Structure formats: C-alpha cells, structure tokens
C-alpha cells in the first residue's frame, strides 16, 4: 500500500467523509468570538419595533408641506428612546432624531438642513414625498426571522446581533482538542542553544499551533520527540487517548529514522490513506483509532503548512459544523508564465498576489523559489495557486484558482 498514491480529490473526499460533528456547549456572548454557532438565532421582535426616523429633522404631515415654504408649530422634542406623548395635528411639527419613534399623525420626516426653527416655529423650505425618511416597523426583519444560521462563524458583528436579540449566551460547537507533536533529533526548541550546525529551530510546532487556532481547534502542544522508536510509540499512544485529533510533523517519509508510518498500525490506527498525488506534501498520512484521528504531515515547513490547509483545516471545520469548510478560493489572473518539469500531481504553488479594485481582479505572481523548506517566502500577501494534475505550463494572462491562506 505504501507505493499506492491517491489523487488529491479522493484524499479530500475521504477526509470530509470521516469528520464527525462535535457536540455543543453554551457560552456567554463575550466568550463566543471566533466560535461556530450550533443553533439558529431568531429575531425576538420586529426591527425596528415601530416606525422610526431615518435621520435628524422634523416630523410633519405631508399635507402640510405640499406647498413650501410653510411655517409649522413645534409641539414636541422626541429624542431616540422617548415614546411620543401626543398625536401630531395639522399645522404642527415635532423635532425628531435618527432612531426616534414616529408619532401618530406624522407621515414624513424633513431633514434638518431643509428647515429653519425660530421661536417655537419651524419653516419648511422644501417638500418631500409622503413617507420620506421613515423606516417602517419590521423593515429590517420580522419577529421569528432567522438572523444567524447554525454553522455561522462568530465575528464581532455576530456578537452585536446576538446582543440585539437579547441573547446573553449562545450554543456553539465544542472545540476539538488537537494534539501537536513534532519529531526529529535535530529539532531544538526556541530559547535553547544551537550546539550543532545541523540543528534547526522547532518552527513547525508554532506554525501548527497557530493554524489550529485559526481553524477553530483547541491546540495542545505535546512536545518534541527524538528519532527514537519506543518514545515515538509511547507519545502517539498517549496523544490518541487524550485528544480528538493528533497532528505530527516529520518522521512520515521513507528515511531510516521515519518511524511513524510503521508504528501507527501497531497501536491500533487504521490507515485511511498514505501518500497523495500532491505537491508539496506527498507523504501525508490520515488514519483513525475508534473516534480519534491522526494526520501525520511531512516535516518540511512549507509542506506542513500546505498539508494542513489542504486536509486538516477542512477536517476541523467540518467537525465544527462550520458553514464555510475551506479557505477562501478566488479567481486570479496569472501575471507571468508558470512551468514545471512534471505534471503527475496537483500542485499548490506559492505565489504573491495583489488585488486591483478597478478591475476587481487578483493578480497572481508565482514565486521563483518553490522549495518546501522556504517558510520565509510565505510572509505577506502569499497564497497558493492551484496547478491541476496533467498541466505542465500556464501562460501569462490565464485565469487561475488562488487560495487565500491567511485570515486577514
């Protein structure tokens, strides 16, 4: 089976088919930011709850302003939040503000800039159609309207909507506990001294931690393990008992010290796939043990990032019941030719991009260096350009699929 590669599309299909929906929990609104709704949220009343003014000005009867200028008596001041105390009669006006409730008898609002008040009277200088500048009851939405659907990702805007419908708490999907393990005797934690030129910093642990938070999981860093078979076996066994999902980086290819692929069946992990026709990130493993899952990702930093975005990100989102499962994908225009030697795999080529607001186009420039270890090239406005299997050459000006791999 180790020599059998599967297509990217088939691998993704397997990943999504395995994702189980997590249970929900109720949290206060202040704790709901960046969580996924596990219930529909309905309007508790009409909005606005009564006819209100759309701007500052004067509430009048249309019949009084058909011919202007006209002088009307100001009978009441109605700030937002006050209930009008009387019915507006002919020849009268009320001073009104944005959001103020419209009194009975009033059917038009004249903006303040078209009126002049003096000694208790206001002169209306311009006429307006009946109903102008008034928001009717329920104009935004009616009581019982679904304002937020289950699966919605909660941003500050959704927090405000929750508060506006009198919610103090809300049901959200429980975050999956995601264990992160990095492998390799050459790996050194930040803050530790590099004693040999062959040693490298443990960047993958922090990258995976951040990516897991972005996806909506609860990351738990379980540490680095040396290239030791028994230590690796023990750590993986513990991780699968403790976590909903385990992610490892490194130790999954064909090297003499790549133990993970052989160890996983020994501890009861069923192989769902191993090795995908994708670049970068070919030696990626996905398996399960009961209702626990593991992704073993390649150790090169760029391969780790791309593999996470391709498989782990949508898996976590599907577990959360999120409405949007994948990173945002847009159409872009290739700014310079792209070619590659082999076309047997789907490639996610690193690229820079800009957005032209005039043409509303993303302009895509493939990076010259596509090495799997060059993480620094992924800073700034970097995305992934999808190069389909079977395609060797893409010409300047061609439309391409661009995956935006950063939240902001």
UniProtKB/TrEMBL annotation:
Keyword Transcription: no
Keywords: Magnesium, Metal-binding, Molybdenum, Molybdenum cofactor biosynthesis, Transferase
UniProt enzyme class: transferase
GO molecular function: metal ion binding; molybdopterin molybdotransferase activity
SMART domains: MoCF_biosynth
UniProt pathway annotation: Cofactor biosynthesis; molybdopterin biosynthesis
Domain MoaB/Mog, first and last residues per copy: 179-318
Catalytic activity line of the entry: adenylyl-molybdopterin + molybdate = Mo-molybdopterin + AMP + H(+)
GO biological process, one term: Mo-molybdopterin cofactor biosynthetic process
EC numbers: 2.10.1.1
Function, as annotated: Catalyzes the insertion of molybdate into adenylated molybdopterin with the concomitant release of AMP.
The protein, known as: Molybdopterin molybdenumtransferase
Organism phylogeny: Bacteria, Pseudomonadati, Aquificota, Aquificia, Desulfurobacteriales
